[in-house]
């Protein structure tokens, strides 16, 4: 049973200028879905629209069968749909602890500390730096903080926009390993990635987005060798 | 030159600082300079005056507390005034600012606040006339406290009230969930929505806090000086200067900025004369803009 | 009848002077998007500059330069432009709000100088005996009023034509691009700031000229002619007329001034004496509400051909 369904979504920042042009994707429970595509294909805008950050002009977003197409962004978080943006995904002037705590506004007061402790168990690096301003963290630590903060509310679906961007290979490996663990804990993950090889390695299914709609869908394991995909997206540059 | 200017400056500076908290929060969270903020102050002072009058009608006059010039009716009325001013701010936001914010041009919102400021101020003149009003007719004797400084009981108590309000404000911003959400929103509005923060709640909190503190400052000006429809307009430039000097978005910065401006004004009054008082804030503002536009505790805007 | 014509000429002269100020604001805001809430200050700088330079000797302030009126007007433009350029220099690299706050401060300080620097501005009593054009025919009221109207109309027309020319010139196109497209501003880098300063100074010069023209038209100036209400009226005029259009600016000035004078006359006739002062404040409330309503529902104004979002 698919937990997240996106049907024919049309979205864009300015009226008449759609970036997402009728994209349909879905994600089942405990699945890692990867969204690939060339630059400017609208991958980022697609998950931002699903998160409620880009105005939607057509189509539907269903979370667990419930229509959330036009709900406010903060309500989607409460309904179990978490999103980690690619850049500027932490509050730099607040401490690590405050960054986590501020996301706990939707929880009962007594739950917050427990959830924060959980996050520190998962990311021991953050625990050591809990009193530091988040702006002083390294790129990889910021990414972990952003992921940890998204998990505070125990979402059912976690969407990430290029979590590996700008990270060293060591951190990329670590981030993806963590995503695998998170899925095993019962979450559905939707992942937009440029780093196709790393993403397909942990993904179950993948979509290739071209010009604002999905052009291809397949099992992640086989997609890498699919000639249609090679032509659509990976082109001649199969060097990644 | 006597040291009296220190007492005078601290008192007027704390009033400016209280007002500047609202300006700095509106700027960093709602992203516009609110030219109507001074008028919220004046409306708060007059609203309180009306409630004091009402209480007087119902229960008759009450004796002042100790050596102070006012009694419990004024304290009660000031609390009511804070609620009323907050409601006025929320009403203005609903009628005007929220609608213009949606259109996305922040400078249009500034212009609207300028129009609203003229209208609010003139409406006060219409209702209460432009002649000054007072909470109490009593004259207070200033007591010497050493170093040639004299201070009235009202001034001491109101300084204490300011310290309590500013401390409460600081704790609220740093410890409470709403305060954290306000800070988060001011740093990155889009990310704030992503982490589940209800923007309308943040906006409401900003108006309520800014308006309530403006009212408190207005009532204090009313107790220490007098109540006039123009009282807010006269404090607008010092409040802006304090908010910018302290660094936009910083609550402690706004208070410190207010104190610096209050002290400079008081020193200028002694050195060059009372008539040039208002030029001090402008001089400080220009100096900050030329030398360090982000202010004392500010950060570069993204 | 004669009286009425004389009054008509007087009314139109005043309205056109407002029109001039509005034209200056249109160059700053309508064309370049620079927000000025200190209009009254810049108008006062122009008025005082020309008045001090052209008026005869006075006992307790500098003066007695007795310069020709035209020179006074020119000086008014130069001094006001300098003040505006300085304001722009300090703030135009920062967010737009800082310019607004600083111009507000300029108006406060100018008011303060006008009131307190007695040796320069005459203090609260202002400057009197400012030479008026065609003072020789001053006793023939109608002729005098019409001759003055002629001068004011000529100045207004000249400024209008110059601004129309400017807004079509390459310089004007750059300003418009800066206003409408942030990327253009970034690609121009430092010179974007310089363009904005130039536009702000030029708009200031027009306001200063208007102040000078008005000072010589009335023959007397005092600090309380330059209160924030003036700034507010001019904004209402530009918003009614439609920012971005010079013709709209002039039309807006005439329309709003008519409403203002009409409402004043109406309340003078209808409202009992002791309520007059209060009624005057209702007039301002009405204009304030009108300004907000225009911003909400018709930001392009009523006389502007060009529609803006």
Main β-sheet description of chain C: none
Q: Which CATH top level class of chain B fits?
A: Mainly Alpha
Radius of gyration of chain C over all CA atoms, rounded: 19 Å
Q: How would a crystallographer describe the biggest sheet of chain B?
A: 2 strands, antiparallel
pLDDT averaged residue by residue of chain C: 87
> Can you list the strand order of the major beta sheet of chain B?
1-2
Total number of helices of chain C: 12
- The first-to-last residue Cα distance of chain C is 46 Å
Q: Can you offer a commentary on this structure?
A:
Chain A is α/β, with parallel strands linked by helices. Chain A has helices at 43-51, 73-78, 96-102, 109-122, 124-128, 139-151, 169-184, 196-202, 220-223, 227-234, and strands at residues 2-11, 20-28, 32-36, 56-63, 66-67, 81-84, 157-161, 188-192, 205-210, 213-219. In chain A, α7 (169-184) links the parallel β7 and β8. In chain A, α3 (96-102) runs parallel beside α6. The longest helix of chain A has 16 residues, at 169-184. Chain A starts with a strand and ends in a 6-residue tail after the last helix. The model of chain A is unreliable at 236-240 (pLDDT under 50). Chain B is mainly alpha-helical. Chain B is built from eleven helices and two strands; from the N terminus they run ααααββααααααα. Chain B has helices at 4-30, 37-59, 72-103, 106-128, 153-175, 177-187, 189-194, 199-224, 231-246, 251-271, 277-291, and strands at 143-144, 150-151. In chain B, α1 (4-30) packs across α9 (231-246), α5 crosses α6 and α6 crosses α8. The longest helix of chain B is centred in the N-terminal third of the chain and has 32 residues, at 72-103. The relative contact order of chain B is 0.21. In chain C, 74% of the residues lie in helices and 0% in strands. Chain C contains twelve helices and no strands. In chain C, α3 crosses α4 (96-116). The interface between B and C is large, with 45 and 42 residues.
Chart the SSEs and their pairings:
The complex is a heterotrimer of chains A (240), B (302) and C (309).
Chain A: E1 2-11, E2 20-28, E3 32-36, H1 43-51, E4 56-63, E5 66-67, H2 73-78, E6 81-84, H3 96-102, H4 109-122, H5 124-128, H6 139-151, E7 157-161, H7 169-184, E8 188-192, H8 196-202, E9 205-210, E10 213-219, H9 220-223, H10 227-234
Parallel strand pairs in A: 3-8, 3-9, 6-7, 7-8
Antiparallel strand pairs in A: 1-2, 1-4, 4-5, 9-10
Chain B: H1 4-30, H2 37-59, H3 72-103, H4 106-128, E1 143-144, E2 150-151, H5 153-175, H6 177-187, H7 189-194, H8 199-224, H9 231-246, H10 251-271, H11 277-291
Antiparallel strand pairs in B: 1-2
Helix pairs in contact in B: 1-5, 1-8, 1-9, 1-10, 2-3, 2-4, 2-8, 2-9, 3-4, 3-8, 5-6, 5-8, 6-8, 9-10, 9-11, 10-11
Chain C: H1 2-31, H2 39-54, H3 69-91, H4 96-116, H5 118-121, H6 141-168, H7 170-180, H8 182-188, H9 190-218, H10 228-241, H11 246-270, H12 276-297
Helix pairs in contact in C: 1-6, 1-9, 1-10, 1-11, 2-3, 2-4, 2-9, 3-4, 3-9, 7-8, 7-9, 8-9, 10-11, 10-12, 11-12
């Amino acid at each position: 049973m698919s937990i997240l369904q996106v049907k024919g979504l049309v979205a864009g920042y300015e009226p008449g200028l759609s970036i997402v042009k009728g994209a349909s994707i879905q994600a089942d429970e405990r699945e890692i879905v990867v969204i690939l595509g060339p630059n400017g294909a609208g991958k980022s805008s697609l998950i931002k629209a699903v998160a409620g950050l880009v105005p939607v002009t057509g189509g539907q977003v269903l979370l667990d069968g419930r229509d959330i197409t036009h709900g406010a962004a903060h309500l989607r978080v409460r309904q179990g749909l978490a999103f980690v943006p690619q850049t500027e995904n932490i509050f730099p002037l607040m401490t690590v602890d405050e960054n986590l705590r501020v996301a706990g506004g939707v929880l009962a007061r007594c739950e917050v500390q427990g959830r924060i402790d959980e996050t520190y168990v998962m990311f021991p690096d953050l625990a050591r730096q809990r009193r530091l301003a988040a702006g002083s963290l390294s790129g990889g630590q910021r990414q972990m903080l952003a992921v940890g903060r998204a998990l505070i509310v125990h979402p059912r679906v976690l969407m990430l926009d290029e979590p590996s961007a700008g990270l060293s290979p060591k951190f990329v490996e670590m981030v993806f390993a963590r995503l695998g663990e998170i899925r095993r804990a019962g979450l559905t993950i939707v992942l937009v990635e440029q780093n196709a090889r790393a993403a397909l390695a942990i993904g179950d299914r993948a979509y290739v987005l071209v010009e604002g709609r999905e052009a291809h869908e397949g099992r992640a394991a086989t997609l890498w060798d699919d000639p249609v995909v090679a032509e659509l997206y990976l082109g001649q540059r199969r060097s990644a | 030159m006597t040291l009296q200017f220190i007492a005078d400056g601290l008192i007027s500076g704390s009033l400016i600082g209280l007002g500047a908290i609202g300006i700095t929060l509106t700027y960093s969270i709602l992203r516009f300079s609110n030219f109507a903020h001074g008028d919220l102050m004046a409306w708060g002072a007059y609203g309180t005056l009306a409630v004091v009058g009402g209480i007087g009608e119902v229960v008759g006059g009450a004796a002042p507390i100790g050596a102070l010039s006012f009694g419990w009716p004024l304290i009660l009325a000031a609390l009511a005034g804070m609620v009323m001013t907050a409601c006025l701010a929320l009403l203005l936001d609903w009628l005007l600012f929220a609608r213009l914010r949606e259109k996305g041009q922040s400078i249009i919102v500034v212009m609207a606040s300028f129009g609203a400021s003229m209208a609010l101020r003139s409406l006060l003149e219409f209702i209460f006339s432009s002649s000054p009003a007072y909470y109490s007719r009593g004259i207070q004797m200033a007591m010497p406290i050493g170093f040639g400084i004299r201070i009235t009981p009202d001034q001491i108590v109101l300084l204490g009230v300011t310290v309590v309000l500013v401390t409460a404000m600081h704790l609220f911003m740093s410890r409470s969930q709403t305060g954290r959400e306000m800070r988060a929103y001011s740093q990155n509005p889009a990310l704030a929505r992503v982490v589940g923060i209800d923007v309308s709640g943040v906006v409401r909190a900003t108006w309520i806090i800014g308006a309530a503190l403006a009212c408190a400052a207005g009532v204090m000006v009313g107790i220490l000086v007098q109540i006039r429809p123009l009282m807010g307009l006269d404090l607008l430039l010092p409040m802006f200067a304090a908010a910018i000097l302290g660094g936009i978005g910083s609550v402690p910065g706004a208070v410190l900025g207010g104190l610096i401006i209050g002290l400079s004004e008081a020193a200028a009054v002694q050195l060059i004369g009372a008539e040039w008082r208002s030029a001090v804030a402008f001089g400080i503002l220009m100096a900050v803009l030329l030398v360090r536009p982000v202010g004392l505790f500010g950060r570069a805007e993204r | 009848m004669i009286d009425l014509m004389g009054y008509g000429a007087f009314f139109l002269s005043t309205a056109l002077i407002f029109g001039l100020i509005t034209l200056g604001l249109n160059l700053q805001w309508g064309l370049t998007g620079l927000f000025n809430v200190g209009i009254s200050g810049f108008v006062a700088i122009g008025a005082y500059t020309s008045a001090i330079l052209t008026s005869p000797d006075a006992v307790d302030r500098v003066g007695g330069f007795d310069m020709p009126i035209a020179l006074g007007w020119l000086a008014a433009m130069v001094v006001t432009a300098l003040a505006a350029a300085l304001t722009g220099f300090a703030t135009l690299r920062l967010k737009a709000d800082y310019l607004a706050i600083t111009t507000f401060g300029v108006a406060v300080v100018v008011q303060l100088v006008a009131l307190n620097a007695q040796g320069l501005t005459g203090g609260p009593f202002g400057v009197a005996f400012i030479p008026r054009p065609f003072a020789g025919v001053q006793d023939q009221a109608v002729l005098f009023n019409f001759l003055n109207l002629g001068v004011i109309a000529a100045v207004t027309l000249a400024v209008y034509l110059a601004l129309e020319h400017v807004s079509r010139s390459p310089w004007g196109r750059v300003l418009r691009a800066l206003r409408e497209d942030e990327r253009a501003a970034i690609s121009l880098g430092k010179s974007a700031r310089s363009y904005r300063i130039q536009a702000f100074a030029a708009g200031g010069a027009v306001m200063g000229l208007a102040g000078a023209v008005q000072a010589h038209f009335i023959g007397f100036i005092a600090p309380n002619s330059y209160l924030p209400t003036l700034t507010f009226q001019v904004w209402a005029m530009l918003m009614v007329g439609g920012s971005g259009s010079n013709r709209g600016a002039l039309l807006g000035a005439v329309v709003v001034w008519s409403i203002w004078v009409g409402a004043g006359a109406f309340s003078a006739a209808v409202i009992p004496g002791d309520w007059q002062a209060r009624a005057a404040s209702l007039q301002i409330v009405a204009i304030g509400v009108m300004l907000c309503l225009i911003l909400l529902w018709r930001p392009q104004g009523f006389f502007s051909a060009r529609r803006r979002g």
